[in-house]
């Protein structure tokens, strides 16, 4: 209902649209605009079935240029609510007020009113209780409304939008001369500096807008906004084209942040294939797909060449022979161009990097005296003597106890894979997946402690979220506390992070919290607690795990292998990716034709 009413306001040429909601829309939905309004006759006619002012002649049916066009919204809404309409055209002396209850007009009167239209929808579904029973919770319905208004605000930067709920302003989007300011207002200020301009196409298909750099990625598709001729849509063709433009730049499970506007001739797109008008069909589907894909790929290629020099701008380094890898020193130092303070996540007996340590309040002790911040990750788990093990532990398979720690370390390949030698072959270990598994299981174990090891931040971090995300994080905060993550409301849609688990010392806090909320929204707040927290732990572990192309020294590699032996499932990362693979000696000898 909110979507239909706001679309009508936009079609009326409004520059200011006010949306007032009470109890998630159950009690009241009011949309007021300063558009061109209606005269008395049109005001009465708009409540008739299939009456529309947006189709003037037959050919208009095949070239829809407005957001609304069916003439179904107002009579349908009026049939299930206590409906009021106040409207006035600019040159009229008085406006018109119409009161409707359950589809029956109760009164029509002249009133004083500003130019424009104000529609009120009270006591929604009061006469259809079966339908009212299936409304979602107030928070859920309000979240949908906030998302809808935000998406429309993205596309209409020159229009002012204000959304209130229970007499409290949720968000006010002021008119923006620079459309990127509106994007930053909707998606967050941190996104603005990562935006890349997109432009391409021809007179048949034109695409414009912005995509964010690959490092500004999300764990869900909630950061993707697609518009066709000013209409917000969810279209698989456009989404696939966007992902194809990012090909080779995002890992599986990562989604880009994008705001794309597609302009096509009105007669080349069908917007009438779905009741909510979210889905559309293109006449030239392949051309649309190829145009979007190429425009996105071009924007990524042309933006800041140094950002991609490591991946695609620089020539590929020659692969050294295995003997050379075995002979070179394991003390790799810091990769060129990287921050020496964050060359590696602390493993083994390494100290916390200075850039990370400076975030913490050194005067505040860790929550657990038995697990100080410096040693919570640093100290590898002790391996018990087999003779002293309990019978149940002695039954554990050998690979579960000392498989990784007994490997002979050869070196590191491309700063991403650890090469080791076993009795029967060559072992390759994905260092990110391995460390992700280690942190994930340590976080799970820490939750069972009475005082989880956490570290207070010297300067608390603040995070701004949208209305829907705020509702989710408020419910999530108590469940995150047992893991040592201390978050408090800071007024409005802002939260402050005061402490984090010592295991997450090197995590980027705002990005981690944002992804936690998005992951929870994707799983569903109503899901069982175990599934919900499991998803959150995966996000936290991923944010703190060492990355690909990150050099490790011998002590760090050794500590990682020992900690991996202590994991419940050392063969797969929390997302299911394999941690290690084995090339058996016999297979290598076959490849070199040493045996037949």
- Known CATH architecture of the largest domain: 2-Layer Sandwich
Number of strands: 22
Oligomeric status of the shown chains? Answer: single chain
CATH class of the largest domain: Alpha Beta
- Tally of DSSP helical segments: 20
Major sheet summary line: 8 strands, mixed
Spans of 5+ residues with little confidence (pLDDT < 50)?
A: 304-346, 348-356, 365-400
CATH topology of the largest domain: formyl-coa transferase, domain 3
> Within the largest sheet, what's the order of strands?
5-4-3-6-2-1-7-8
Outline:
elongated
What is the structural class?
Answer: alpha+beta
Q: Give the count of structural domains.
A: 3
Assign a percent range to the helix content. 25-40%
Average predicted confidence as pLDDT: 80
Kindly report how far apart the N and C termini lie. 72 Å
Assess the beta-strand content as a share of residues.
15-25%
- Give the C-alpha Rg: 29 Å
Name of the CATH homologous superfamily of the largest domain:
MutL, C-terminal domain, dimerisation subdomain
């Amino acid at each position: 209902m909110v979507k239909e009413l706001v679309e009508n306001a936009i079609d009326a040429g409004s520059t200011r649209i006010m949306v007032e909601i009470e109890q998630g829309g159950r009690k009241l939905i009011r949309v007021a605009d300063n558009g061109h309004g209606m005269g008395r006759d049109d005001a009465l006619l708009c409540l008739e079935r299939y009456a529309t002012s947006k189709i003037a002649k037959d050919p208009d049916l095949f070239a829809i240029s407005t957001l609304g066009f069916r003439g179904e919204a107002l009579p349908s809404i009026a049939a299930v609510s206590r409906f009021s309409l106040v409207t006035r055209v600019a040159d009229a002396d008085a406006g018109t007020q119409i009161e409707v209850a359950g589809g029956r007009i109760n009164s029509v009167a002249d009133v004083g009113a500003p130019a424009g239209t104000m529609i009120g929808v009270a006591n929604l579904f009061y006469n259809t209780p079966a339908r009212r029973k299936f409304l979602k919770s107030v928070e859920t319905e309000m979240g949908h409304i906030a998302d809808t208004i935000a998406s429309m605000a993205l596309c209409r930067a020159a229009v002012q939008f204000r959304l209130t709920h229970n007499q409290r302003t949720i968000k006010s989007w002021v008119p923006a001369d620079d459309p990127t300011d509106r994007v930053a207002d909707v998606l967050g200020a941190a996104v603005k500096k990562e935006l890349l301009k997109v432009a391409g196409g021809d007179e048949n298909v034109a695409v414009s807008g912005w995509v964010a750099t690959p490092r500004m990625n999300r764990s869900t598709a909630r950061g993707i906004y697609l518009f066709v001729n000013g209409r917000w849509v969810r279209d698989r063709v456009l989404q696939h084209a966007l992902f194809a433009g990012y090909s080779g730049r995002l890992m599986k499970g990562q989604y880009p942040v994008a705001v794309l506007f597609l302009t096509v001739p009105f007669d080349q797109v069908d917007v009438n294939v779905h009741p909510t008008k979210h889905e559309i069909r293109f006449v030239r589907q392949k051309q649309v797909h190829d145009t979007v894909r190429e425009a996105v790929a071009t924007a990524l290629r042309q933006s800041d060449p140094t950002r991609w020099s490591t991946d695609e701008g620089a020539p590929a380094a020659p692969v050294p022979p295995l003997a050379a890898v075995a002979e070179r020193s394991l003390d790799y130092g810091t990769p060129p161009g990287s921050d020496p303070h964050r060359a590696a996540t602390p493993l083994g007996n390494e100290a916390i990097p200075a850039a990370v340590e400076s975030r913490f309040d050194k005067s505040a002790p860790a929550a657990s005296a038995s697990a100080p911040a410096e040693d919570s990750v640093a100290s590898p788990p002790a391996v018990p003597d087999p003779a002293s093990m309990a019978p149940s532990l002695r039954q554990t398979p050998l690979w579960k106890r000392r498989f990784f720690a007994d490997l002979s370390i050869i070196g590191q390949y491309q700063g991403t894979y650890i090469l080791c030698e076993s009795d029967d072959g060559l072992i390759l270990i994905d260092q990110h997946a391995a460390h992700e598994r280690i942190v994930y299981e340590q976080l799970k174990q820490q939750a069972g402690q009475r005082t989880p090891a956490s570290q207070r931040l010297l300067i608390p971090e603040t995070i701004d979220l949208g209305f829907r995300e705020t509702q989710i994080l408020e419910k999530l905060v108590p469940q995150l506390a047992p893991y040592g993550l201390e978050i408090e409301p800071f007024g409005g849609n802002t939260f402050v992070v005061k402490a984090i688990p010592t295991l997450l010392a090197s995590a980027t806090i705002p990005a981690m919290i944002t992804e936690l909320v998005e992951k929870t929204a994707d799983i569903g707040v109503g899901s069982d607690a175990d599934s919900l927290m499991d998803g959150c732990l995966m996000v936290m572990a991923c944010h703190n795990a060492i990355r690909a192309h990150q050099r490790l020294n011998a002590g760090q590699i050794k500590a990682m292998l020992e900690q991996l032996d202590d994991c419940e499932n050392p063969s797969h990362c929390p997302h299911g990716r394999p941690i290690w693979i084995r090339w058996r000696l016999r297979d290598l000898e076959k490849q070199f034709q040493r045996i037949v």
